[in-house]
Each structure stands twice: as structure tokens, then as C-alpha cells.
Amino acid sequence: MTMLVLMLGATVLTVVPASSATPVGVSAAASASALAAIAPVAAKPKPQRWKPPRGVVFNNPKGSARARVAIVARIRAAIAHTRKGDTIRFATYSFDRNEVANQLIRAHRRGVNVQIVANDNYISKAELRMQKVFGKNRTKRSFMVFCKGSCRSGPGGNLHIKIYSFSSSGAADNVIISSSANLSYGASFAQWNDAYTVYGDRKLFATWVKVFRQLKNDRRSTPRRIGYSSADRSVIFQRQLAGAAAAAADGSTEVRTARRGSSDPVVQRLGKVDCSAPKGYGVDGRTVLKFIVFAWYGKRGDNIAAKVVDLKRKGCRVQVIDSVLGESARIKLQRAGISVKAADWDFGKRPASGDPELEVYGPRCYSHYKFFTLNGAYDGKGLKAVWTGSENWSGISFSNDEVTLRLNGGPVYQRYTSRFDSMWNDPDATHKAGVEPTRRPCARS
Fold first, then answer.
1. What is the Cα–Cα distance from 119 to 121, expressed in whole angstroms?
2. In this model, does residue 4 exceed pLDDT 50?
3. Structurally, what CATH architecture does the domain formed by 55-217 represent?
4. Of 43, 118, 126, 426, whose CB has the highest number of CB atoms within 10 Å?
């Protein structure tokens, strides 16, 4: 009988020809099974275990290199963990970071669908490079397009939303990163920003995809106000009616009586605040409000300031940090006994927003946050919550595509309140309102 001896690494296998008798006590099936067990088998892909970190991340423009790019790093990690067939959807006001553009191009080339909608005020070289690779056909799997004004209402206003989303990233599905930060170098080196990550909320993600599809089409869409709410969070994507935007701009949306309420969603939110806090909320029985908003000015800013003053007079405890605070709004707040600080530094000539070829005078280091926190009574019950997103408190925001995210609960409230307090107590982050310091605490890019 002829036998074939195979050497497999350190294993010696003796194979008996099929014509030979099967060894006693071993069936033919068992012999075949033994051979199959040692045959080369394609390795199974390792399961994805990485998940994006949930919750909030803040960058610090006056911190270490790692602290400055904390938000960008979170977005880049999510891009890195996408796979063929996943879909990335970004909407942002500005985008000039070359390393992120390179990473998105690599993702596209490995089969990820990369879809980006941006504002058209200023189109960067990084955006043009991506458009050359992705194309601008909104029906294709990847594209890079620009809105003419606010995407969902045609000319006028801006796309001001900053949301970076992923159908999947690592082991997480339905990932949304909502931020005050654009994907720009200035957002890291010259601004304080926040970004909040949610995943696994299918209804929230579906709401965002509905809005994104309207954005990418760049034409008038209805409804203009799209929202979603759950026990943990709620979101409003808004672009006000043209009449409401005009009214806000010319000041006709003054704080009104309950019989005829304001059309301003910020005033509407503040109208649900009760300054008498229930047990377990507030401080010494009073509701606590902390506002840190990049731009708060003009007739609309004055109207919101009047509502905040009204809450102060009713007993709420109020603090305000701003970067572009109108003088009339500041005077209203301070005369009511509200403590106000500013987070704007290094005044001088700087590139105009949306067009770095133009220069304007203003701060070159500043807070870009758009959030406020509440601990007390809201809409008839005790609440600890945060409102954050993309909207500034000025008339132009009524003409923009904007998002406001409300986050409920003590842990998220504490994270944002701690950030506010750290800014308030840091002499290199905030200063006396009404002055224009030339010192620059932010890092040089």
C-alpha cells in the first residue's frame, strides 16, 4: 500500500489512498472531517469593537496641541472607523482643514459614501479638491455641493448648521456629532467650541437625514421647522418664515404679552422658565440660568436681553458670557444687576467671516459657544438641561438654516455648567465686558 506523507508545519499527516481500506475504528466520514479541519480556512474579519465617545467634548484654543484639536480628533476618529457602504453626511458653514479633506477622500476611495453640503460665502481649496474627487451630482453616492444662501429657503441667509454624521462608525450606528465648530483651522486655534455625540437613536438620526436631504437639494422646502423629542433630548432644525425673519431684523418682535407671544424661538423657550425652583433643583429655591453665546446683538438681541432681564427681576439667578454682545443689550443686562463677562481677545484686523481675502476689525480669539444651561423650573416641572447648537442671537440667524439641541439630565448639565464656570473664573478666558483687550491668550496657529 502506498501512503502519502504531508508535512504541515510541525504536523505530520499520513494520508491513505481512497482505494485502501479504512483504518479499523475510523469511519470514512471521520477521515474526511479530519482533513477538512486542517485545510486552510479564510480568517473571519474581526468584529468592530471601537465606538465613538458619547456626550460632549470641548476644545481649548489656549491649551496644548491636543486640547486645541479635541473636536477635530473626535470627527477624524469617526471617519477612520467607517467601512465600505457606510454613509458620511456633513453640513457645515466653512471647511478648510486639509487633513480632514484627505481623510474623507481616502474614505471615498475605500467605498464609503461621502456627502458634504457647505455654505457658499467662501469656498476653500480643500473644498474644491473634494468636489473634484466627489463630484457635485447630488444623486451620486458621494458629492460636495454648496448652497446658494440658506439651503432650504433659497437666496438669503446661510447654511449655519455644523453636523457631522455617520450611518455607522466602528460598532456604533446612527452617529451624530453636533457642534458649534466648523471644520476650519480657526475653530481650533482661535475659538472655544463644543461638540456633542449621540448614537443609536434611530429616530433622531432619521430626522437629521430628512433635513440633510432638504439641505442637499438647495431649494425651498417645507416644513421649515423640523423637530424630534425624547426623554433624553430634543432637536429643532429651523429656518424661520421670511416674515418672521424680517420682523426680527427690524425689531417688531418685542417681548409681548401672553395673549400674543413672540415668534422668536429663544424668547419662547425662555417664556417657559419659572424662577421659583422645585425641591431638588436650582439654588436656594431659585432657578439658575447661565448663558454663553457668541453673537447677541441688534434688535433681536435687545428683545432676548429684555426677556432675560424679566427673568432676573422675577428672581432667577443669571450669568452671561458673550463675545459679540451689542452695547444696548449689555446695558440692559447690567442695569438689571446681571453679571456679564466677555470672552473676546486680541482685537485688531482679521479675515472677514466667509472671505479671508477681506479684513474687518474685531476679536481674533474668542468663545464661539452657543449654549445656555438651566437648573430649576421649566414648562411646569423641575429640570436640569442644556440648549446648544449653531444659532447666534441676532437677526441674521432667522434667515439661516440652524439647529438647536436640548439635552436633559444632571450629568450633561454638569459638564456644560462646569465649562461655563471654568471660563467665568479664568482671567485668560473672560474679562470685564465692554473693553477690547489686545492680548491674545489663544495659541498661534
1. 6
2. no
3. 2-Layer Sandwich (3.30)
4. 118
